[in-house]
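Hello again,

I reread your note about wanting to compare the complex against the isolated chains. To keep things tidy I'm splitting this into two emails, and this first one only covers the full assembly. Below are the input lines as submitted, including protein chains and any nucleic acid or small-molecule components. They are followed by the predicted structure of everything together. The single-chain runs will come separately.
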Amino acid sequence: MSVATPAELEAFRDSVRDWCRSHVPADWRTAQTGVGEDEHVAFQKDWFQELRQAGYAVPHWPAEWGGGLSVAEQIVLYQELAAHDAPRLVLAFVAIHHAASTLLAAGTDEQRARHLPAILEGEIWVQGFSEPEAGSDLASLRTTARRDGDHYVVNGQKLWSSGATHSDWCLLLARTDPGAPKRRGISYFLMDMRSAGVDVRPIRQATGEWHFAEIFLDDVAIPATQLVGTENDGWRVAQATLGAERGMTMLELAERLGHAGFRWLLDACCRPVAGGRPLDDPAVQERLAGFETEIQGLRALCRGLAERHETGAVGPADASIVKLYYSELLQRMTDFGAEVAGLPAQTELRKPASSGWESGAWVLDFIGSWEWTIPGGTSEIQRTIIAERGLGMPRGPER
Amino acid sequence: MSADLTEFHAELRGVARAVLARRPPGEGAPGPDGLSWERLAETGWLGLEVPEALGGAGATLAEAAVVLHEMGRAPQSCAYLGGAVLGAGLLALLEPHAGRDELFAGLASGAIRPAVGLATGEGAPLGAAPFALERRGGHGVVHGEAGFVPDAVGADRLLLLARDGRSTVVVATSPGAAGLQVAPQPVVDETRSLGRITAAGVEVDAADLWPLAADPAGLVDRGALAVACDSLGLAEAMLEATVAYAGVRHQFDRPIGSFQAVQHACADMLVQVAVGRELVAAAVAGLAAGEPDAARTVSMAKAHVGAAAVDVVGKAMQLHGGIGYTWESGVHVYLKRAILNRSLFGSPGAHRRRVARRYLGERGAAPE
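Full-complex prediction:
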């Protein structure tokens, strides 16, 4: 990958700006507020294709599969998309990040050829990891996959799968050796969500939305060709692909926070409440400066992580540091947004679908911030990973 | 950063760590015993920012930052901040002339130890000149005072920032001058030497009034960033010490580092250090290169790291338990220095307000 000169990078920025001006739908926020599920899915798929045609949908993928932008270019792209208040790819998130990185790192040539182009055509993926009795202790999962000739027969229940109602494929962890120690008997599968025996039931979350779902699996047949890596090696595959992947997903979110989220917060501080403008309060000014400082720190951390990802030098806890810091910063910022925006903010009953984690509907954004501090390894689990893997502290009692 | 520079920094860091790790015989804990000016001269650090033609290394603040960071990791008394970092910083702002060159050369060799009379967070606002010059024909008379000046006591030459009409001039004087007083200001942190310079009608020749070629307000940024580098070093060292201690100290038949309460506190310390490292790196790069928004990045780094270091070192004392509270453990040395650093060259609040000025500029000031 060639390193762009500052002039080339600025030229790239100009081209992204031009593209944003002519492609970001002016009224999408209004249109996406209170929108029906089908309409939301259609909007997301259309927007994905728009970005894809410009070469902006999967910039972090290798060039041979349709990506190939450098980290510096990706940062510019994400900055401009945020600055122009472009919709986010919320439904494609698992497909373009988790599924793609798993396939690229551990998939067979056939699996890549089948799925990567299909993702570009709009296939939606969901993650089937957590279960009712396997949350933070993910390795204790109970869903089983029994080999039967040229396929596996899967039974069990998955929980918290975000976007499952609209998904075409599932990244599934299931137990293939019930007798082995818990981390060594798990396998990693690609499961077609249209298979017989797959039943999806949406779950309503604290914000009132229905992003999550339960997936019930009743004698679902998965062809053996859809196994990723070798049998019983699924835990290692999941750890290897998902940890490193975090850096690339965070790059976009950090730039979004810096180039849209902070501006929204500043806007909120400029709306008069109870006779005054929050921005004129020195205490508010200090809080704002503190947040902007922390965002600068976060952005630099994410950039460093993405660059080390490219050179294969990611530290064992780097991704956890970034996930933990982003989650808690988002929570503190949205909390502050809800506080300064005051009573008027309480009347925003819906946030626009397709928006960022900081949409400007501060009360709902604040409530939604727990969707960062709990899933994907809670903040407590991240701290344990940072201590044990990053700092090399002694492991706690056998888990 | 180029590969050459990265390598140079690594070498400088390695040497600094070794030099600073040496302690007087029988002294286990870091403390005020210190590194003499002569010893500092031998290390070559005094001349880092002195031009090569005047006997220095012709390096930049980025290299001094490496040394400052290491001094935070092993805090002990020395006049590097007041003499070399602020001294060289001020000399670089002057119009070139013989007096300046003599001082630059004296600094590099260690023959002269300068100190700079500037506002560091008490009395005059940060960045303002604390002294006033009154011109009388061929000479001038100086009044005013500057408190909490790093390494003022023991300096051979005093360079005072003085208001001269609408501009600022540097008054070059010496501790023996009539009407000039340099008094120590003992502070809780024994590893820093701070002093108050008072000028009550000090008469100076016109030749000792040195014009500035650049705005001296940037000196405060230099001081603030130097202290931020130091605080980062303090926090880093205390995190490492705490992780090491938690691995060997056993309670309930387990190393205390295996308890989640201890692990999670250490994880938070690491996150704060990691964020601080990024902010300091950005500020050092910006100030060393003279980028237009350097002051802002310095304020971000100083505000964040200044406060974070106190949190981190405070947690280190907590996690060391009873032993951490003893004088002998030395954790208090780090904590006191971190608390002083937080206030020196602008509090976190003062720096955050400086960052916030832009919001008011962009969004309009308050309606009257």
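For quick reference: Chain A touches chain B through 40 residues (CB under 8 Å).

B.
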